[in-house]
Design brief:
This protein is 39% helix and 15% strand. The protein is an alpha/beta fold. It has two domains: 6-309, LmbE-like (Rossmann fold, 3-Layer(aba) Sandwich); 318-440, no CATH class. The strands form five sheets. The protein has a seven-stranded mixed sheet with strand order 3-2-1-6-7-12-8, with helices on both faces. Helix 1 links the parallel strand 1 (6-11) and strand 2 (34-39). Helix 1 crosses helix 7. The longest helix is centred in the last third of the chain and has 21 residues, at 318-338. It is elongated, with a radius of gyration of 27 Å. This is N-acetyl-1-D-myo-inositol-2-amino-2-deoxy-alpha-D-glucopyranoside deacetylase. It comes from Brevibacterium picturae. The chain crosses the membrane at residues 318-336, 348-369, 376-396, 416-434. Keywords: Membrane, Transmembrane, Transmembrane helix, Zinc. It holds the Pfam family PIG-L.
């Protein structure tokens, strides 16, 4: 028997589901999948675009009713038959609001209502999401990445609560996906020089609010065949979104292109094979997900296998750079002392020089740099170390600064190779992707 895929999308406010995942929703519905959209709030704190409806701003109850109607229209456009609000009739979570920070990203509002999403205990929010997971029994769950896209506190709270809910629900979801936007796609989205932008009347962006990807992008869902559907769903959110041609804008009037792909990273669950990823991101959110195996589980059975969680890499901190500097000083000194050593052999009357000192020195560099890259999952500490090695070697070759000028003999090929070798090795290693091992949870 063929199992119909079930996918749950968890979002913070009406319009988020369409802006970030509307094309994926429409594509899945078109394929016959059962799609459920869960909205955590009714977007009570949203700004209102149409002037004739401007009096709804600040009227949280009135705006909530209008946005309920808007998302119902958007769901109809996308073909979604099951849309839910978090808490159902038992509890209602309100929009927490936001403010724009000095860095161009969203930050928490100065004040929020008592029943705001961000005012609730994380465990409470997660419990309600887990109840929906157990009811829907999704094979895949899709929500925001840890950065909330552009930092909105409600987006971040939904991410945290969904991650917790996937862990605590009786139903074991096959895959947890996060919306994650590549930097080049973010630039394309806000590029005001694209054909057709001038005719929209929208304003060009001065800064790009989208945050860098949190994890490796492994899915690029092609939505080119359903862009018209996504556009219609965007237009349904008329208090929040203006649509013109292939572009849309929020209440700030800044134009954004409706791009033809939506991108995701995997937070937990079934990975996509390295062989498939060798040619780029997979084309579908369900790629390499065994739906039948996920369906065969017995909900509520104790000891059900938990999802394998992908740890989100953290940016290197002070310790990482201190580690890199100390390691570089050690490698730089040892390499500088070692690189001139050679052995000379007589081969059929010709002297053959074997520069084993240089080989060992560069091998030491390669091992040290690779250690830094794999330990911190970042090229930055590695590049800092390579720079320190080169600078130290340069200093050791200046007789007017330090005694012992014969350590680095800049007129020899070996010393020249030692001076540029670390940076060349770092440049090569920078293009090699490393991934943190999964950890079972």
């Amino acid at each position: 028997m063929t199992v119909i895929p079930r996918i749950l999308f968890v979002h913070a406010h009406p319009d988020d589901e369409t802006i970030t995942t509307g094309g994926t929703i429409a594509a899945l519905v078109g394929e016959g999948a059962q799609v459920t959209v869960l909205s955590a709030t009714r977007g009570e704190a949203g700004e209102v675009i149409p002037s004739e409806l401007r009096d709804l701003e600040g009227d949280r109850v009135g705006l909530a009713r209008v946005r309920e109607a808007e998302i119902a229209e958007a769901m109809a456009a996308l073909g979604v038959r099951e849309h839910l609000f978090l808490g159902g009739s038992a509890h209602s979570f309100e929009d927490s609001g936001m403010e724009w920070g000095a860095d161009g990203h969203a930050v928490a509002a100065a004040a929020m209502p008592a029943n705001a999403l961000c005012a609730a205990e994380l465990s409470t929010v997660a419990r309600y999401i887990a109840a929906v997971i157990d009811e829907v029994r999704p094979h895949a769950v899709i929500t925001y990445a840890a950065n909330g896209g552009y930092g909105h506190p409600d987006h971040v709270r939904v991410h945290e609560a969904t991650v917790a809910a996937v862990d605590t629900a009786a139903w074991r979801t096959g895959r947890l996906l996060f919306v994650d936007v590549p930097a080049e796609v973010a630039h394309e989205t806000f590029d005001a020089n694209q054909p057709g932008f001038a005719e929209t009347g929208f304003s060009p962006a001065q800064t790009i609010p989208t945050k860098p990807p949190v994890s490796q992008i492994v899915v690029a869902q092609d939505i080119s065949t359903v862009i018209g559907v996504k556009r219609a769903a965007l237009a349904a959110h008329r208090t929040q979104v203006s649509v013109s041609g292939g572009f849309f804008a929020l209440s700030n009037g800044i134009g954004m292109k409706i791009v033809d792909h939506e991108y995701y990273s995997i937070g937990a669950g079934a990975p996509i094979s390295e062989q498939r990823l060798s040619s780029g991101p997979a084309p579908h959110v369900l790629t390499d997900l065994d739906i039948a195996a996920c369906e065969s589980q017995h909900p509520g059975v104790a000891g059900a296998a938990p999802l394998r969680r992908r740890r989100e890499p953290k940016k290197p901190g002070f310790f990482a750079y201190a580690h890199a500097a100390v390691l570089a000083l050690l490698i730089g000194f040892l390499g500088a002392m070692q690189h001139m050593n050679v052995s000379v052999f007589d081969l059929w009357g010709a002297a053959v020089i074997l520069p084993w000192g240089l080989v060992l020195a560069l091998l030491l560099v390669a091992c040290g740099l690779w250690h830094l890259k794999t330990m911190y999952l970042s090229s930055t500490p590695m590049l800092v170390a390579a720079f320190v090695i080169v600078i130290l070697s340069y200093v050791l070759g200046q007789p007017q600064w330090l005694p012992g000028s014969d350590i680095i003999v800049t007129g020899t090929l070996r010393s020249a190779a030692w001076l540029i070798g670390p940076m060349l090795i770092a440049a090569v290693l920078a293009f090699i992707k490393v991934r943190r091992p999964e950890a079972a949870r």
